[in-house]
Amino acid sequence: MGNLGLNKIGTKAAEAICKALNVKNAVRVLNLALNQINDAKGISKELTTAKRLEYLNLGWNKIGDESVDGIREMLRANRSIIKLGLSFCKISEEGRKIITKLNKVEL
Description:
Strand order of the largest sheet: 1-2-3-4-5
Mean pLDDT: 93
Radius of gyration: 12 Å
């Protein structure tokens, strides 16, 4: 389990962590909740091929609608992710509907 919640991790640092974890391909649970992540596009790109990742928690960050397409594509491409936490993010109702169509999301 990668529990990195509540660490003041910013967007770029989170992307670097995801890139490193993707190379190792050993983490099944990654908690990045309660950090300072403003955009999940880079995170989504890095985790598209993370074969062992089953649960990703990005809740309580400032992730908004600009990340919706990347998150959707990550979930489509990565079949290992069975649960995604986005509670208390800044995603609109329309953005939530787009993502939740994939049935893996807690909003």
